Amino acid sequence: MGLNCGIVGLPNVGKSTIFSALSSAPAEAANYPFCTIDPNVGMVSVPDERLDTITELIPTRKVIPATVEFVDIAGLVAGASKGEGLGNRFLASIREVGVLIHVVRCFEDPDITHVSGKIDPAGDIETIDIELALADLETVEKRLAKTSKISRVDKEAAKAAAVMIPLLEKMKSGLSEGQGVRTLGLDEDELALIADMHLITTKPVIYVCNVDESAIHEENEHVATVRKIAQDRGSEVVVICGKIEAEIAALESEEERREFLEAEGLTESGLNALIHSGYRTLGLRTYFTAGEDENRAWTFHAGDKAPQAAGVIHTDFEKGFIKAEVYSFDDLVTYGSEQKVKENGRLRLEGKQYEVADGDIMHFRFNV
Fold first, then answer.
1. Burial of 7 (0-12, 13-18, 19+ CB in 10 A)
2. Which of 7, 38, 321, 333 could pair with 72 in a Cys bridge, judged by C-beta atoms 3.0 to 4.6 Å apart?
3. pTM listed for this prediction
4. Do 89 and 231 sit in the same domain of this protein?
5. CB 199 within 8 A of CB 172
6. pLDDT confidence of 250, banded at 50, 70, 90?
7. Span 84-111, mean pLDDT?
C-alpha cells in the first residue's frame, strides 16, 4: 500500500511543472492549453528521517523508503465532460487514486495565458468541481439504468436494487447540480455500496496553491480565497512555488537542498509538505522492518491491526499471521541498538488484536 495522488486543475496553472519537480520525471510543459497529452505517472520516495536514523543504528545492505505515486492528467476545461478539450479522456487514470491534488493558479504573470483570461481561484475551483461531477454523473446514470433493467427481470436482484436505486438517484440529483458525492452526506454503508464505481468526487481533496516567489512568505489574496474554500470543505491547503520546487529538484545532493531551503527561509520543500498532507488526509501511518538485509518503511492505515499491517508486505503474512515482534522507534533511539532494546525488556510479542502504532519496528512470525 502506498499513497497515490491524482493531480487535477485547469490548463496553465502549473500542474505539469509541479509534477516534474515533485517526481523529477520531466513532464512536457509549455505556455498553451492541453500540453499534457498522455497521463504522466511519477513515483516519489517519502521523506522520513526516522528511516535514516534506523539505518545509522541498524546497518543494512539496502534501504527502501515508502513511495508516493503522482498521476498528472491533461488540464480540464469547462465543457470537458461534453468533449471540450482533452482532459476528460484521462479521468479514468485518476479514478482509483486515494486523494486528488487540485492545483490552483495563485500567481499573476501576463506571459502565461490563463484559459479564462483572468486569475480567479474560486471560479477555477468551481469549473473543475463541475467537470468532475459531470464525469461521475455519466457513471452513475449508466449504473442506474443497468440496475433498473436487471431489477425488472431478476427477483433476487430486485431486493438489492431496492436499496441501490434510491442511492443512485440521490447521487444523480446532486451530481447534476455540480455537487460532488463527498458533499452528499453518505454514510459508511452507502459508500461501501458504491465503492466499485470509483467515483472521482468521493475522494478527499488537497488544494495546492501555485504561487510566485513573493507569496511563499507573505500569502496573497488568491491563496486566502483558496484557504477559505478549503476550510469550508474540511480540506487542507499546501502553498507551493513551482519555480522554487523545480530548482530544488535540480540539485544533486540532500545537503545542497537543505542549504537552498535555508537560503529561501523555508523549513521544508513543497513536496514534503504535500506528502505529509496526503498522509494526514488519508489517515496513513508508517511502520518499519529492519535487519542486515534490508531496512524498509511500510505504509498502513491508522487503526490497522497487526495482521492487516503484515498484509502490506504480502498477503501470506496476513493469512498465516502468528505473532509480531514489536518495539518502537523511540526505544531504538533511547537504547541505541536492537540488542539493548531487548536487554531492557522493550521488545514485546503482540497478537492479532494489536493495533499497530506509527513508528513501530516490527518482525512478523507467520506460517502458510
1. buried
2. 7
3. 0.86
4. yes
5. no
6. confident
7. 76
Q: Say if residue 85 is in the same domain as residue 144.
A: yes
All residues at 6 or more sequence positions from 13 whose CB lies less than 8 Å from its CB, including other chains: 75, 103, 104, 105, 124, 210
Please tell me whether residues 226 and 320 are part of one structural domain. no
CATH classification at residue 86 = 3.40.50.300
- pLDDT tens across 156-207, in order? 778 888 889 999 999 999 999 989 999 999 999 999 999 999 999 999 999 9
Residues 211 and 352 both lie in one domain: no
Contact assessment for residue 310 and residue 318, using Cβ atoms and an 8 Å cutoff: yes
Shared-domain flag, residues 127 and 235: yes
Does 307 share its domain with 204? no
300: DSSP letter: E
Examine the domain organization and report whether 201 and 311 are in the same domain: no
What cell numbers appear for 347 in the block? 521488545
Residues 6+ apart with CB under 8 A from 356: 285, 287, 300, 304, 305, 306, 308, 309, 362
> Could you tell me the CA-to-CA distances from 53 to 47, 64, 180, 334, 348 in Å, in that order?
12, 13, 43, 12, 21
- For 120, residues 6+ apart whose C-beta sits below 8 A from its C-beta are none
**DSSP line for 195-216:** GGG--GGGS-EEEEEE--GGGT
Structural domain span for residue 141: 3-280
Which amino acid makes up residue 262? E
Number of Cβ atoms within 10 Å of the Cβ of 346: 17
Backbone angles phi, psi at 99, to 5 degrees: -145, 145
